[in-house]
Amino acid sequence: MVSHLQRKPLNEMRGEAKILQEVMKRDSRLRYVGFRLIELAPGASYEEALTEDECCIVALTGRIDVTQGEHVFANIGTRESVFDRKATDSVFVSGGRSFKVQGRSEAKVALCYSPSVKPLPTKLIKAEDVGTEERGKYQNKRTVHNILPDSDSSASSLLVVEVYTEGGNFSSYPPHKHDRDNLPQESFLEETYYHELDPQQGFVFQRVYTDDRSLDETMAVEHGDVVIVPVGYHPVGVPDGYSSYYLNVMAGPQRVWKFHNDPDHEWILNRK
């Protein structure tokens, strides 16, 4: 049985766009985070009027045009597959505005939502401006693309990152959480994970659990799945032979990423 935290892919046409995933506040435990994944054929378009939420439009694969008012960002996107392992272009749109996304080629587009705390300028986040970092060591290595980190003031509440983890490694590890509004020690941030695998028939394991185990779910996550993390620790393990990609969307009362490691496993960081 599929966990209530795991969403399998959709294939639902909505106008000219195919909806591949949809996790919104109205149909989940989340209060701050929303996520939608759409697929566009060449020339097909998707339009949305934002009200209370801001949105980061990520050109996951393929080429797209994004229009918001007088802003036109033409032919953006950098890769045919997320496993090209290079950063891509995104567009940030504040709440109270409308936007249109049109496919230049076959395109997959991630729409990442969180509350619009204050109006901010519409902004193109160019691939070359996305910071890349290597995290971890031993069997805990991953590559991170910081699309909207907390050091970037382009958004009012939204945080967006991409993570690559090779087979035999764990990610979001040692297990960490950010479910207490207790700064400066820890921030409260909900999170979604959109997963892709290479090759696509692969799977990863993701566990979401709290200290008291009132929430404790371990999932076999396949290509195209979304995992919802309302609270708790949330490590990801990647089997040998497969590569993992996931896109994280985070938001909470304050736009600060401050996590707390599971004390039972924090010793891993101090290995010689």
Q: What do you see in this structure?
A:
GO terms for molecular function: isomerase activity. This is 5-deoxy-glucuronate isomerase. Belongs to the isomerase IolB family. By secondary structure, this protein is mainly β. It has no helices and 26 strands. A 7-stranded antiparallel β-sheet has the order 1-23-20-25-15-14-13, with no helix packed on it. The chain has a 7-stranded antiparallel β-sheet with strand order 2-3-4-11-6-9-12, with no helix packed on it. The mean pLDDT is 97.
Topology:
Layout: E1 6-7, E2 12-14, E3 17-23, E4 34-40, E5 45-49, E6 53-61, E7 64-68, E8 71-76, E9 90-93, E10 98-103, E11 107-115, E12 123-125, E13 131-135, E14 142-148, E15 159-165, E16 170-171, E17 176-177, E18 179-182, E19 186-188, E20 190-198, E21 203-209, E22 216-222, E23 226-229, E24 236-237, E25 243-251, E26 260-261
Antiparallel strand pairs: 1-23, 2-3, 3-4, 4-11, 5-10, 6-9, 6-11, 7-8, 7-10, 9-12, 13-14, 14-15, 15-25, 16-24, 17-26, 18-19, 20-23, 20-25, 21-22, 21-24
